[in-house]
Amino acid sequence: MSAPLVELLYWEGCPSHPRALAELREELAATGLDPQAVTVREVRSDADAARERFTGSPTIRIDGRDVVDPGGEPVLLTCRIYHRRDGRISPVPDPHDVRDALRAALADHGRTPPA
């Protein structure tokens, strides 16, 4: 059984990607996955943003799917804003959204996530 592909895409102009990476690694460990198994990629140009369908930094994708659907947000180099489940605005995704996406990916890979 393979592990899900976990990616963090960021733009250097946005300072929240180190926090996003740290929180992502915590969620990977909590679901029994290798916290170092994250592909981290910098999006450097508008052309890169278009190619990656990048709607802002940071973006976390698991098996190519964004952990939070960006909806109709435009593709461009910008800082991304997330809405936490408790209603707060945040520069990083809600850890619960990341955890749910990881659990769904594990199930897709035929693995049972820890309780």
Which helices and strands occur, and which strands form pairs?
Layout: E1 6-10, H1 17-30, E2 39-42, H2 46-52, E3 59-62, E4 65-66, E5 82-83, E6 89-90, H3 95-108
Helix pairs in contact: 1-3
Report the average pLDDT across residues.
Answer: 94
Q: What ranges have pLDDT less than 50 throughout 5 or more consecutive residues?
A: none
| Residue share in helix | 25-40%
What is the number of independent domains? 1
Query: What is the 3D shape?
Result: globular
Number of DSSP helical runs:
3
**Judging by the overall fold, what is the CATH architecture?**
3-Layer(aba) Sandwich
**Which H/E pattern describes the elements?**
EHEHEEEEH
Which strand order do you get reading across the main beta sheet?
Answer: 2-1-3-4
* Amount of beta strand: 15-25%
Which structural class do you get from the secondary structure elements? alpha+beta
CATH topology: Glutaredoxin
Strand segment count: 6
Radius of gyration: 14 Å
Measured between the Cα atoms of the first and last residue, the distance is 19 Å
